[in-house]
């Protein structure tokens, strides 16, 4: 029997996108002037298509944001789309500490999984409590929120909207998240709470500079129920070549629920980008965000950007592709999808 629960695909209709704004108490403190314009670009792009929810620990900055973004929305004939909430936060990765929304019998339900900063790598107590702050502020209206005593980040799972999840064993099976549970127990839990009929596990693939233990949203993404795009490294001298070639072979072996192969599209491999200390940063074109009628697409000011945009335009011919320069975001080892969390239709009004 099919579960009444379902994790919608990202292309399903949305009511809003959630952003957790950077502030001086985060790791962005030394580069706020560079990163805030990226958040502003994302915010304005979202407002052209749906509501925007922003939480920020610094009330004065939040008030200024509310004023500026409301003015932008009104000037573009989109009044009433901005929601702001003052709330404490350790950092800005809304994809991973934000609520994951399922439908249960067609009705949206917010799931508040535990967040422990990718296995205790960084402070996380404020982020873990953020969803409760948002719900208490009435952002989600009457939509119920259910706590789930299981560590799970939104960036670690992809849904086709039909009961199939795509994930990585490197992340979900890392002992620092849920040490008491093995793969079978995790599959059972995800079946119960997310309605997953099938889970496709990738055992290969990584990005240098990534703190997440190989989140799927940096490597491979559902573009449609039968279509997966993924990062591919053609340079045999690159440190990523072997792992990503092995990941590609795994994707080629995956089958849809009816037994047929997936359509696969390789994304370009951006030129290597390093921080001031020479460490490689995790630039990836897979970290895009699908919203209503558009795709917000990360670019990095490298030679492959135009090709990547063209490929994305071919994948999503009915959606506007909105490039956003995310070079500043990868300085803290994440990109566009990592700082956003979509909220499905029927929640934020």
Automatic annotation (TrEMBL):
One of its GO terms (biological process) is putrescine biosynthetic process. The lineage of its organism: Bacteria, Pseudomonadati, Pseudomonadota, Gammaproteobacteria, Pseudomonadales. This is Agmatine deiminase. SUPFAM superfamilies: Pentein. It comes from the Bacteria. It holds the Pfam family PAD_porph. Keywords: Hydrolase. One of its GO terms (molecular function) is agmatine deiminase activity. InterPro entries: Peptidyl-Arg-deiminase_porph.
């Amino acid at each position: 029997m099919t579960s009444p629960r379902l994790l919608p695909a990202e292309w399903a209709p949305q009511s809003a996108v959630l952003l957790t704004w950077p502030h001086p108490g985060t790791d962005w403190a030394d580069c706020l002037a560079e990163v805030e314009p990226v958040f502003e670009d994302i915010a304005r792009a979202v407002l052209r298509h749906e509501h925007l929810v922003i939480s920020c620990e610094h009330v004065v900055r939040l008030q200024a944001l509310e004023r500026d973004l409301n003015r932008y929305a009104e000037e573009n004939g989109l009044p009433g789309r901005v929601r702001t909430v003052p709330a404490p936060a350790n950092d800005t990765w809304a994809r991973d500490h934000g609520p994951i929304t399922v439908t249960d019998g067609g009705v949206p339900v917010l799931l508040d999984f535990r967040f422990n900063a990718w296995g205790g790598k960084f402070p996380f107590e404020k982020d873990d409590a953020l969803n409760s702050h948002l719900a208490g502020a009435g952002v989600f209206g009457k939509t119920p929120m259910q706590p789930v005593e299981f560590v799970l980040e939104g960036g670690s799972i992809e849904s086709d909207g039909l009961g199939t999840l795509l994930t990585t064993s490197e992340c979900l099976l890392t002992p620092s998240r849920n040490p008491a549970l093995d793969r079978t127990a995790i599959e059972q839990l995800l079946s119960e709470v997310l309605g997953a009929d099938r889970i496709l596990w990738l055992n290969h693939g990584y990005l240098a500079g990534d703190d997440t233990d190989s989140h799927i949203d940096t490597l491979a993404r559902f573009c449609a129920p039968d279509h997966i795009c993924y990062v591919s490294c053609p340079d045999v001298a690159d440190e990523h070549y072997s792992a990503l070639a092995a990941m590609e072979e795994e994707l080629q072996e995956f089958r849809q629920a009816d037994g047929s192969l997936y359509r696969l599209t390789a994304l370009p491999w951006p030129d290597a980008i390093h921080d001031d200390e020479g460490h490689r940063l995790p630039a990836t074109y897979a970290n895009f965000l699908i919203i209503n009628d558009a795709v917000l697409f990360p670019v990095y000011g490298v030679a492959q950007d135009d090709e990547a945009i063209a490929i994305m335009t071919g994948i999503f011919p009915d959606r506007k592709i909105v490039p956003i320069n995310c070079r500043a975001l990868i300085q803290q080892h994440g990109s566009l999808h990592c700082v956003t969390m979509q909220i499905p239709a029927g929640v934020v009004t």
